Amino acid sequence: MNFVTRYISEALLLQQSWYYPGIHEKEPETFKKVLWSLGFNTKDYTIEVRECEHRILEQRPETYNGIMFVGYERLDKEWARTGCMTMEAVIASSDDKDHRKELVEMATTAKFKEE
Question: Which residue segment(s) compose the domain that 58 sits in?
């Protein structure tokens, strides 16, 4: 089985109307469903709650000291069809070894066309 780590800061979730601090403890099933919709594999793995200093994607380079939820990204076809799957997850979800190799090369190698 392949794993792709996925993170989300509570600071981003606080911007959503449905989220409130402690929802992961008070309404764990609801929280799992929402994280599932955000690409976390909550069916097969638990979500770790970390209290730490971290960066929020939208606020680089500033850091945020607070809760970060950590888990694994979904690798299913339904998630892939959303267009939100990370490149790492696309690669990890491929059953074809040659296709994975090609995707890795495409993701890591800059190819320039001479004119």
Answer: 5-76
Which amino acid makes up residue 38?
L
The three-state (H, E, C) secondary structure of 20-46, written as one string: CCCHHHHCHHHHHHHHHHCCECCCCCC
pTM as predicted: 0.80
Helix runs in 2-115, H state only = 10-13, 23-26, 28-37, 77-81, 87-93, 97-108
| Domain-located, residue 34 | yes
The four Cα atoms 71, 83, 30, 11 give a dihedral, to 10 degrees, of 60
For residue 57, the tally of other CB atoms under 10 A from its CB is: 9
Number of separate domains in the chain: 1
pLDDT at 61: 78
